[in-house]
Amino acid sequence: MKASSRFMSAASAVALSVGLASSGMLAAQLAYVSQAEAATVSRIEVRGNQRVDAETIRNYIGIRPGESFDNGDVNEAIKRLFATGLFSDVRISQSGSTLVVVVDEYSIVNQVLFQGNKKIKDANLSQAVQLKPRGSFSNAMMESDAETIREAYRRIGRDDTTVTPQVQQLGDNRVNVIFNIQEGGRTKIANINFVGNNAYSDRRLRDVISTKQSNIFSFLIRNDVYAEDRLRADEETLRRFYYDHGYADFRVISSSAELNETENEYTITITVDEGERYTFGEIGLETTIEGIDTERLRSEIDSKKGNVYSAKAVEDSIIGLTEEVAGLGYAFAQVTPRGDRNFETREISVIYSIDEGPRAYVQRIEIRGNTRTRDYVIRREFDISEGDAFNQVLVQRAKKRLEDLDFFQTVNVSTVPGSQPDQVILVVDVVEKPTGEFSIGAGYSTGESATSGSGFSVEGSVSERNFLGRGQYVRLSAGGGRDSRDYQFSFTEPYFLGSRISAGFDVFHRTRRYDEYERETTGATVRFGLPITEALSTQLAYIYSQEEYEYRERCDDNGDGVPDADCDLSSAIVEAINDGKWVKSSVSGSLIYNTIDNMRNPRDGIYANFTTEVAGLGGDAKFVKFTARGNYYKTLSEELDLVGLITVGGGHVEAYDGDLRIFDHFESTDRIIRGFDYNGIGPYDPETNDHLGGKTYFNASVEAQFPLPVIPPSIGMRGAVFADAATLYGSDIPQAVGTGMEWRASVGVGLIWASPFGPLRIDYAVPVVKEDNDDVQNFNFGISTRF
């Protein structure tokens, strides 16, 4: 029989179309009677099959003896056989009244084995590769899997990893596939260089991007891993940074990474064009929608004339205007900013135009890429759902909320047309990242007062921000030193009962050992948080705690629970201890205002907290307590990366049924004033010199934070100079003296370290204004608490 050239060409095309031509072995061949356009056969013969039953193959080809078939039917038969993934080659020909089907079967994979891998576990590699036990084998798939393994090692910073695949024949057309892996060393980032930057130093820009130069701690935090998509994201981060600081013409000219294979390290070079810095010019507001009063809306505009131009200010203005107009009943209103550059004055005038936008509805929200995080955790960050009017501003707000969750490496929200012209489908693509954290911190106290010891203390914690993929926060911590023990378990549900109200609880146990006595506190807190605006929120809590006291041996030699006569302990403390167990049952309410730009590395914004606590819902304590604290961050010099911080705070507590006991007074800490020991200032007992705490305190601090000149910014260390002032006064203890409003002041230097173990801080402070009875503590090292 002579093969038809037209038939052969079509069959070959089919083989290519199913993606098997890459092996170089898969060419579908067909011999056919050239003089016939259609034919019939009396039988179908299958050859070459070893595992696949011949009748199964006959069923796949779809051609039946005695029924006519043509070239198209044969093409379809070849497609179906290749689509099974069981055959590396298929040939169909006609011999007389017999249709002959010849197949070459793929080998069957018995096992997929990995050898030499330590940094990536077998289970993770098995999940990544395509070849699976009891699946079909192909050389093309094996080579593809080898490249997949290499890419997995690149993602953890091991670019010089080599993967050599090996096939082990087992007989009966079965094989083992072995991937021999030589992991090599970590590929480092030796340098990140910037070209074309004048307004900001290389050091400052390195701090902006997420990719960091390698340092001695990189093996812990892994932020020195080069990835092309990460570099693209850093380009966008740079654009946002410049746009928000007045450089509206900023461009990234190029970014490249050059690998030195000898040293196994990258050098990254980013070339930029900063352009000129602009300020806001005239700000206008117009609308084509009747019934909208533009003057009423001007308060929603965040951009002001004369301010440094900021893309974020424009975006915030769009969001505010859009939400306000939507609240007036115009769901499809669209706010569009129009900018007009004045190159001579370097001003950008902005007109916000409000128009009736196209009527479009959300048909569906489709979420992709979340293998761990549950769909509803992502959906609840959207203020729109299926069937609602499409609003691009609300979509962008949801995107920011998803990014702020810190569950994902990247978040991308796009739209595709729906089934109707006025419908759109929201597509949310996410790439998840690890959300569990282990941190450990240490502190050192040099205090030697009557009620505190000295020495090291440590604290460790394990936390999970996305518990079981439900978006819940869980934290278990433990710590202590020579004279202290602390244990706490916390749980937070950010969307209680499906609403944007957080609910959680804390269970804690604390032990403090003083020279003469020991205090144990056990309790729990139940709390609820409610957002009011994007910057303002409130938190309500119920606190229950129980305190127990016990004299130590040096103060109670015979163990009868009565302090010895020579026990150098204030009678106010003795009275509180003799009261036995002390139960506090209270409720508190807080207002929190937060405009901080970056909670981990703040440079601009305000964080303020005002709390009222009322004790007396049962229990022994009966008081009202007010506390407030505010932090104001401001970048003083972008070029020098100098950040200023002003902190003010205060508190007052008042008993409403009897006198306030000693342990319910405020005690000074390093958050109130540095350079003094814990509870080292304020009213005191003149007989024992024990400080008794106070009913009222005020404190203020000014601080300048700056980069250290020699240490790379990727280490995360910054220096600080500060000046503190505070007063602690007032007391309900009869024998207390020094109850007046005397101010103390100190100056000092600090080292702030965003370490892999959590934020740490070392301060050395010297009192410049003090009282004779104050206890000094110059040096303090511990876990940093900014807010």
What layout of secondary structure does this protein have?
Elements: H1 5-17, E1 29-31, E2 38-39, E3 43-47, H2 54-61, E4 69-70, H3 71-83, E5 87-95, E6 98-105, E7 108-115, H4 122-128, H5 139-155, E8 162-171, E9 174-182, E10 188-195, H6 202-208, H7 218-221, H8 228-243, E11 251-260, E12 265-273, E13 279-287, H9 294-297, H10 311-327, E14 333-342, E15 347-356, E16 361-368, H11 375-379, H12 392-404, E17 408-417, E18 423-432, E19 436-445, E20 455-467, E21 472-481, E22 484-493, E23 502-513, E24 517-531, E25 536-551, H13 571-578, E26 582-594, E27 605-619, E28 623-637, E29 642-655, E30 675-676, E31 696-707, E32 717-729, E33 744-755, E34 758-769, E35 776-777, E36 779-783
Parallel strand pairs: 1-5, 3-6, 7-9, 10-12, 13-15, 16-18
Antiparallel strand pairs: 2-4, 5-6, 8-9, 11-12, 14-15, 17-18, 19-20, 19-36, 20-21, 21-22, 22-23, 23-24, 24-25, 25-26, 26-27, 27-28, 28-29, 29-31, 30-35, 31-32, 32-33, 33-34, 34-36
